[in-house]
Every structure is written in structure tokens, then in C-alpha cells.
Amino acid sequence: MAAPLSGFSTTDLLAELKKRMETPAKKNMILIGPPGSGKGTQAPIIKEKYNLCHLATGDLLRAAVAAGTEMGKKAKAVMEAGGLVSDDIVVGIIKENIHAPECNNGFILDGFPRTVGQAKTLDEMLVSEKVGTIGAVIEFKIPDELLVERICGRLVHAASGRSYHEKFAPPKVPMKDDVTGEPLMKRKDDNEATLRSRLTAFHEQTKPVVDYYAAKGLYSPIDANQKFDTVKAAIAAVLSK
To answer: What HAMAP family does the record point to (predicted)?
Structure first.
């Protein structure tokens, strides 16, 4: 959040206003959505359009552990002891990344916060680091039944990561990769029982976080059960406010 202008002289006030007008506000945002909602498809588009960094907390955690950063070492010790990585460590890992040059214009947070406590810890860190505040929280809304159909029909070529779908994007030859002809597989977790359990947990976990940001006037739900370009336009409309 910018500093108040009440303490400036007239000359300094004009200079500060000019500086603020010339320096675009950072676009710090959070994307919320269950697996299969299209969040992972739209995030790179937002990143490129606004020149932001994409902070997917799972990836950040693995990278910090591999790089042996201060927070990575703490996380590794906790995980090796069989514990859960604390909110302070996760926020610390985000803190290690938000000052990177690619985050100069802002960031997209993906996969965090998952609780109100995490949201408050994140807010405090952003203020202390003077990197702006969260400006938008976008939730990708889509019926659970459609997610079950999307995810349970996924097929993957393990070696390349190429993905298909039994209904929406089938391979030319059933259960064979189009390029190599090698067998396709279904991921172990891509089954209805596992997915419904994950969706139930997601909804229970997400509602308090959504309510927290809605109370701040930052929350915007979008209908993710639409064509790609329609969802893209809905996101652009939210971010133009």
C-alpha cells in the first residue's frame, strides 16, 4: 500500500504524484480453483500479458529444498521428520521469491493461501516487505460433476507428458500416443473416489478464505465452465478494475 501523502510539501507532493502516475501499481493476485478448473491453463496467459511471476507454492517448495535456501533447509528438516511444513516457512519461501526481477510488476499466487491464518500471515509479510498488497482474488467456479468428467477421462503419455482425453481430445488410436504409438496411462489419482474426496476438502477449505477476501472487496468468482476465450475475457475484466 502506498504511503499517505499528507506529510509532503506542495513541490514534493507534485513529484510524488507524478512518480505514482508513471509507476504502474503492482498486480499481485491469487488464483483459486479445484483441479481441472482451467486455472493452470489461464495462469500463463495472465503471466505473459501483465509480465508477472507465477508462484505455484508446491513448485517453490521443491525448488527451495533442492537449492538449499534458508527456508528450503527448514522445510527439508520438517519433511524428513515427517511433519507438515508450517505457514511461516511457506510464506518465507514466497518472501524469498517476490524480490526476484521477474516479480517487479507483481505476482500470481497459485495454491496458497489455503486457510485464513495463511492469508493473514501473507498479508503481514507483503506489508513488511513493501511489495504491495493483494489486489485481486479470482476463483474459477465449475460444477463438480464436470470436473469429475474432465479429470477421470484424462490419458497421459508418461515419457513426454502429452495428455489426451477419452471424450474431449481422444488419441487417434485408442490408448496409444499419437506421436510414438506407445501406450497411454491414467494417473493413479485420476479416479472418481479420490477426486470427490479432494473436491470436498477443497470446498471446505476454500470457503473461509473466499469469505476473508470478499470482506476486503478483493474476491471475484468467474464461470470457468465456458470457452477458453470467454474465461480469458472474464479474467481481463476483473483485472482492469
So the answer is: Adenylate_kinase_Adk
Set 187, 227, 232, 241: catalytic member = 187
| Three-state DSSP class for residue 102 | helix
H or E segment and range at residue 193 = helix 192-215
Give me the catalytic one of 26, 27, 39, 150.
Answer: 39
Give the domain ranges of the chain: 25-142+199-239
What pLDDT is stored for residue 156 in this prediction?
92
| Ranges in the chain, pLDDT < 70 | 1-9, 12-25
196 is annotated as an active-site residue:
no
CA distance 130 to 49: 24
In the residue annotation, 39 being an active-site residue is answered as yes
The number of residues making up the chain comes to: 241
Of the candidates 73, 176, 198, 232, the residue annotated as catalytic is 198
Question: Given this model, what pLDDT does residue 31 score?
Answer: 96
First to last CA, the chain: 17
| Catalytic status, residue 114 | yes
Told to judge if 150 belongs to the known catalytic residues of this protein, a careful annotator would answer no
Say what the pLDDT of residue 23 is: 43
**pLDDT at residue 13, rounded to an integer:** 62
Domain 25-142+199-239 coded CATH 3.30.1490.20: no
Q: What integer pLDDT is reported at residue 16 of this predicted model?
A: 52
Residues whose CB is less than 8 angstroms from the CB of residue 62 and which lie 6 or more positions away in sequence, other chains included: none
Whether this prediction's pTM lies above 0.85 is answered by no
Is 187 noted as a catalytic residue in this protein?
A: yes
Q: Running DSSP on this structure, what letter comes out for residue 101?
A: G
